[in-house]
Design goal:
Blueprint (H helix, E strand, L loop, with lengths): L13 H8 L12 E6 L2 H11 L6 H6 L4 E7 L1 H7 L19 H19 L3 E5 L6 H7 L7 E9 L10 H4 L5 H4 L7
Antiparallel strand pairs: 1-2, 2-4, 3-4
Helix pairs in contact: 1-5, 2-6
């Protein structure tokens, strides 16, 4: 995850190509309810930052503001509930409690990971971050995002700044071992 970007333009069309990779993510019931809102122009990026963090923010945010592109990731719980009420699924009550996991979030996470991987494959760097909960309404209003859309997060994309080095939690917290996180056949 990159927190500061070089002052370097992106190749024309690369963000669209990266975003299109998200369309190949798994989708429960082939609901296809992950939506992306791309902010590449200086005006759109400024509008995003003004809506999401009007008071400025800390040093990580100053670096993030240098990203030449932002991809907002949105999902619709309602679309999933409607899809699973169709005849081939048959959950006519549309109750989200039925779900073992909220796949509107799961699918959005998979789509986001494809964007991150596509950015790296394109020779770029990226970071995923969330919009503060109390600012989602402002971002929604700034970009005319429908009410049924739920904010998943934002992916910043660009070239890594030459001075960028690891920061944040990764510098203060050790990586857990594979033995702690991967098990075979039983949890023990």
């Amino acid at each position: 995850m990159v927190r500061q970007y070089a002052d370097r333009q992106l190749p024309i069309g690369v963000i669209g190509e990266i975003a299109e990779m998200a369309l190949h993510a798994p989708s429960a019931g082939f609901t296809q309810a992950i939506s992306l809102l791309i902010c590449e122009s200086e005006e759109d990026r400024r509008r995003f930052w003004s809506a999401a963090w009007p008071a400025g923010g800390g040093s990580w945010l100053r670096g993030m503001r240098t990203a030449p592109a932002l991809i907002q990731v949105w999902t619709s719980q309602q679309d999933y509930l409607e899809r699973y009420a169709e005849a081939d699924k048959g959950w006519t009550d549309r109750d989200p409690v039925r779900w073992s996991a909220p796949y509107w979030w799961v699918d959005a996470g998979m789509a986001s990971m494809l964007i991150l991987l596509a950015a790296v494959d394109s020779g770029l760097s990226a970071a995923f971050f969330g919009i503060p909960a109390d600012r989602i309404t402002a971002v929604r209003a700034a970009f005319v995002v429908p009410e049924d859309q739920l904010s998943v997060g934002v992916i910043s994309v660009g070239y890594r700044h030459p001075a960028e080095s690891p920061s944040g939690s990764v510098t203060r917290r050790p990586r857990r071992s594979d033995h702690e996180l991967i098990r075979y056949e039983r949890w023990e």
